[in-house]
Amino acid sequence: MIPFVDLKRHHATLRTKYLDVLSSALDTGTFTSGVAVKQFETEFADYCQSSYCVGLASGTDALLVGFLASALVPGDEIVIPANTFFATVEAALLADLEVRLADVDESSGLMTPSTASLAVSPRTRAIVPVHLFGQPCDMPGFQELSRERGIYVFEDAAQAHGAKVGLRRVGSFGLAASFSFYPAKNLGALGEAGALVTNSEEVASAARELRDHGQVRKYCHERIGLNARLDEIQAGFLSVQLGYLDHWNSRRQELAEEYCYRLQGLDEISPLSSTVEGSVHHLFVVRCKFRNELREHLAGEDIGTGVHYPVPVHLQPAMRERGYDKGDFPAAETLCEEVLSLPLFPEMSVEDVKYVVLSIEKFLSGRVGSAS
Ligand SMILES: *Cc1c(COP(=O)(O)O)cnc(C)c1O
Questions:
Q1: What is the pTM of this model?
Q2: Ligand 1 centroid – CA 158 distance (Å)
Q3: Distance 85 CA to ligand 1 centre (A)
Q4: Do 145 and 117 form a contact (C-beta atoms < 8 A)?
Q5: What are the residues facing 98 on neighbouring strands?
Q6: Which of 34, 162, 179, 282 is 20 to 30 Å from 275 by CA-CA measure?
């Protein structure tokens, strides 16, 4: 049996370190906004080669607080890819921004400067490249678009902790970047957590206020904020893990390369998530015209898979009053029908990859057999 992810195994060797974190919280009696949060913020800002990190309660809060802290005001237009996890758009709508969706490049699933520029209008104030599946977007291209059009870049880096463009890690290419530490992400808390990373002191200090009810000091509420604070113990757990992140990411890289190598001869299967250099392979995504059949076959062989994502943002029920139609973003729609995420986690073995690919081959030869 090969599960899609195996978090139990992932954390097993860190148990005593986690228990130390928990003990120290119980010893000090500090459970939120303490030294562990500050320490993780310093470490993660350094890791992202950025000046500031503000710990938050989730990746969605990081997007929401980030948008609110970036001097965007209600009605400002923001460009977001139609192929992303719904939270990117949800947070923008909760911040009362005017969302304009952009299609993506079919070979990577990413929004590119050219797919984005079709959506940029004179009213656009910000653009949100999403580093989907761990693949870094074309940040030099987005920076150029940003200069040309006078718009902010805000990175959604929820799936790309440590991904690189050249020598530089994602998270420092725009005004700010949001990260998620949802358990299954490359860096995942033992619960919910997220962070905003920025080089702007203004954005960082606004985000610190916003996460704590807009308070500048106790009971002085300078703005309307929310409770989006990061827990002490989650911060402590994340500090433990941060020391292993590069190792985990390079393990993902090796496994992704093994998948690519072994899938090479199969015409019906094309890997998506390794087309971009500097990827941290949050997911290993392939395209297949008969995705649902393949998925069922793999389930029958005890191989876990995922679909990221089955429905594009513009066709979600929550978007139904916003005037979108099927056909509006063809690449995003095609991908939603064809993508399949294969098992990929740092503790997987090369043997596991071989087994998955063998099962795929078995499926394909069975199909040929049934067609003739
Ligand atoms: C996971 C994710 C989020 C949301 O993060 P949470 O921590 O689950 O709130 C946002 N954007 C993308 C692209 C994600 O993958």
A1: 0.97
A2: 5
A3: 7
A4: yes
A5: 77
A6: 179
